[in-house]
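>> received
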Amino acid sequence: MKHIRLRFVAALLTSIMIFGLECPTLNINADEPVRINEDLSPIHSELKIILNYNNIKKAESLECSKRIAFEYAAKDMQAQQRINEENAALQQYLPQKTYIGSYELTAYIATGNPCASGVYPTVGHTVACNSLPMGTHIYIEGCGEYVVEDTGGMADNVIDIFVSDYDTAIEFGRQIADVYVLE
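>> returned
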């Protein structure tokens, strides 16, 4: 109904402007002020209702968003607590490690002979070190877990890691890493 009324008024005003009809209520230079004959209070009331409804919906939406965020935060905290408890339980099964220092790392390849311990070297398992007792389980940061099964002509604080071939040994080069004894 409002749209029809607005279209009618727009069409009327367009006609007046096209045909140049004089209308004292539209004359800006008229001496008397323009009076609106239509009562706008129903429109004003309806506008207030719409604005109030929009404000209520906005508040409800904000409250719903806060509630959802709170629920997710609570679930997140529960999940993190469960992870922390599981990690604590698993820690007792992991070997404890003691930091023994920063070592220089080199790589060596097989000669066909057994290690000083009597076993044949294994890639990803065997290291040679003169400063650690034979059979010591160590963790080399960035490399993994190894067992001291060999000795060699290296100085203290040098660990020689057994690798599969010459190219791998050359590529490995010399590195520095923190080393831990596993208990």
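>> The mean pLDDT is 84.
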